[in-house]
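Good day; I would like, with your permission, to put a structural problem before you. What I wish to show you is a protein chain and, alongside it, a tokenised description of its three-dimensional fold. I would ask you to consider whether the tokens describe a fold that such a sequence might reasonably adopt. You will find the record immediately after this paragraph:
***
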Amino acid sequence: MKNKLVIASKNKHKIEEIKDILSAFNFNILSMDEAGLTNLDVVEDGETFEENSMKKADAVMMVTNCIALADDSGLEVDILDNQPGVYSARFSGEGANDQKNNEKLLERLQEVPMDKRQGRFVSVISLAFPDGRKVSVRGECSGMIGFEPKGDHGFGYDPLFIVPEYGKTFAELGEEIKNKISHRAKALEKLQEELKQIVGGKLREDRNHQ
């Protein structure tokens, strides 16, 4: 029987990414909706990604009595003192959405030349276990903020985030490449190692040959 793991998120894109990257583990992975938590709303009022992700994981674990995984992620831009940070999803204020957030970011960086547009995506993933064990891991992906949105894939700030190694935005690269190099992928790689130690998670042998 597979262990149930509930992802503490209602973001369909994020859930798909996490399911894809953790598919090699022997978990029955459920979204909040699939676990019957449609009405559960956790206030993300922490000052750090770590605080927010663990708060969400704890809340879902307490309700479901299952292992809960939560991700809190966002974009930090050096010249903006690491804003939008934990406020990435609501950067443009009330009624915030991806387009409005991207527009505000471009407005804030309007006079900033490319060599000053460094930033990073950050993902902190936390696990809360019914027996009280807790784990948090952090992954980062460095890049530059472009002058205009490019690409049709991904979500959030993906159309503006340029990966120097490829010279393209996350939204241009697509899910297959993004899921190998992203901040969330790096955090999940660390989580895989933690899972091997904590719950005896075992990767399929073909995972290392993909």
Q: What stands out?
A: The two ends are 26 Å apart (CA to CA).
